[in-house]
Amino acid sequence: MGCGVSSAHQFMRYSQEKVTENQPDSLENNKGQSTVRRNVKYANQLLMIPQQGITTLQEMLQNSVAKYGNEPCLGKYEGDNFKFMSYNQVNEEAIHLGIGISNLNLVKEVQEYKHYKLKLIGVFAKNRREWMILDWANILYGYTMVPFYDTLGPESIPFILDQTNIETMFISAEATKSLIQCKEKHKLKNLVLLDPLSEQQISDLKNKGYQLFKFEEVVENGKKSIVQLAQVQPSSIYTLCYTSGTTGNPKGAILSHGNFISAIASTQATDAGIASTDVHLSYLPLPHVMERLIILTMLFTGASIGFYRGDPNLLKEDIQKLRPTIFASVPRLYNKFYDGIKAKINEVTGFKKSFAERAVRVKLENLRSEAKYTSGLYDKAFQGVRDLFGGRCRLMITGSAPIQQEVIDFLKIAACCPILEGYGQTESTALSFSTGAWDPKSAHLGGPAANTEFKLVDVPDMNYTSLDVVNGIKTPRGEICLKGYGVFQGYYKDPEKTAEAIDAAGWLHTGDIGLITENGGVKIIDRKKNIFKLQQGEYIAPEKIEAIYNRVQGVSESFIYGDSLQSQIVAIIVPQKEFVEKYAAEKQIQADFENLCKHPEIISFYQKNINDYGRANKLNSLEIAKLIHLEPQPLQTFGCLTSTFKLQRHIAKQVFANQIEQLYKGQA
Q: Which CATH number fits domain 1-47+446-529: 3.40.50.2000, 1.10.10.200, 3.40.30.10, 2.30.38.10?
């Protein structure tokens, strides 16, 4: 099953007709949902592998070493530039590391999930070359990686340690600080150090009962003997990817070699067209499936990966030194680039300003009519932007959260290259939809990945159905559900959460509400579950926040909302009338209750109370609303509550749409 890079027009034009599943559909089965759709090029068979003979990540790496052995593979900043190990060198060190892990008995086989026999091993560090060499070793020797986000605190770490029972963790010096704070170590006993530690750190870790090894010592030990590579199958578990625990304890998504192999194949079937000449800077968190998939796809194609120095303040310099050809990021960072570039354009005067303004206008017109990214004349106005990304960036990628059309369109013309928008979840191995470079329209998901089929399931409680008509045009709407080779195996040791995510027919329910566009792609319009993402890609659980806000003195009710194109939440607060009137009298503010709710001093007072109480109850900065509207009428007045007084969010969102819009418009 070959997978060459398809032409843009052939790949990304989506079928308008229903494409059936393996089992024939019946009218009864289709009731309450849209028809099942696939990418038009893969209507008959979803894409499983990138090329013949590569069915596992182990086979993929062996193929890459054979083809690109002497080419630069993994780079590290040393001296004043990036120094690279070749594919042969990385493979050799990974083999020695894998053998050393075995010789030192650092990992034990456990049978803790269904029929799988797993050898679990942890890693707790920012992106770095040793991280990927460990990942490479795990692939070769059949170990299952359990990555820990470097931002995890002493609450989440013990939960993952307890659930996985890992005995060995590869860890950076910085991450040991969080580990030492944990009250329970569970079965974790071996730490492989990626950095030198102070005598105090060593003493603290040994006092907690940890046995310490140096990364280099494990590699050296592996040179003493030969151990055969593991027999890895597509169904073998490659990693447990723990998702954010914002709504409770984190969940470990079980992802197989087959999941990632199909995702690599699908990535190469998009307009990305990653090749051996490409260079990627790795700085997005490696425990996240998006960055993991990008790096594995780069390794499949023989490309080069350089790892940033771990300091966001040095990222700009790292970009200048590495000069990547592919740049991947998230909306939050792209927005910073956008703001900075626009500010610099506004600073210029005279002829330069008029030329820049004309360049923006003309290039935007060409982009939105012809999907044209370059212009012989007007590209000169954006040379500084191209230099900002290293001067040779040919492609950008964005994911993890939606990005505003104004921002992405401007960056496309300023960087003079396509920006592909991807959509996926941890549970679907990162890539489920992707836009095309040929498409002049932004702010949608594009069409389904080559390994994915999808359907929309009615959500009648929110008035979204497959029979909806919008502006006189039939526009199916509903929850996006996915099936295909990228869909995960379930949550580790959590059958209840697994059953909530994957139904009996094997469909992954994403919780996102989408509509089918005119050409068969998808656009997200709402969120089914009572959680949402902010611009940073962070999940917010509004019910938890509302429960705390409702306990603030003077607060009667609250409604929390967050737009995924924004970086902050907003709060609709119903204040207690007597409390407000008493405070106003003390401050000698004269007005009726409705106007008191609009008074800046009253609003500021509530803002301070919310901030103080939220912090006292351990809300993080993203969970504290800096934008609030005081509503004098109870929520029940607007029909926002059920008969059992539960908040109907979709109704509250509609009722307070104007207030929400004004709050976001007025933010600093």
A: 2.30.38.10
